[in-house]
Specification:
The chain has two helices and seven strands. It is an alpha+beta fold.
């Protein structure tokens, strides 16, 4: 008989990460490099995925990356990663990033993206993960839309 997989809420694995934009993170214009931000977002989403799966999880895809505004040297970056839906062995993580100016405390969105991860067993093979039980209306909307996004990725 197969092992019963437990159910979790998205907030059980929600991850909040903070970084500071240093000169080595910026381009010659003093703006945060997109690649560095994606790296930070991938790290936050990996922590979220692994916390949810209780297994090692690896990035499978990244889609719908929207660079909305630039962050500059000295800005504080906050990254929030939250699982939207768990499938059998994979999961979609929605990640948003905000920048905050230190002096003015102005906060604004700089990026958002969807990451897909797959959980691996000790032999590096995909393994079953807990399912998601969305609670809030926003979580339910993300949960339902994740199935549509998954279908679009397969095209």
């Amino acid at each position: 008989m197969p092992k019963k997989i437990k159910t979790k809420t998205p907030s059980d694995s929600e991850t909040l990460m903070t970084e500071v934009v240093y000169p080595n993170d910026a381009n010659p214009m003093g703006m945060l490099q997109g690649g560095r931000l994606i790296q930070w977002m991938d790290t936050a989403s990996a922590i979220c995925a692994q916390t949810h799966a209780e297994k090692i999880a690896v990035t499978v895809s990244l889609d719908k990356v929207l660079f909305k505004n630039p962050a500059k040297i000295g800005d504080i970056i906050t990254i929030k990663a939250k699982i939207t839906r768990a499938f059998d062995t994979s999961m979609e993580i929605f990640v948003r990033a905000w920048a905050r100016k230190v002096i003015s405390m102005e906060t604004y969105m700089i990026n958002e993206a969807y990451f897909t991860f797959v959980a691996l067993d000790d032999n590096a093979k995909p393994t079953l993960i807990p399912q998601i039980r969305p609670v809030s209306s926003e979580e339910k909307e993300h949960y339902n839309d994740a199935l549509i996004r998954k279908g679009q990725r397969k095209k």
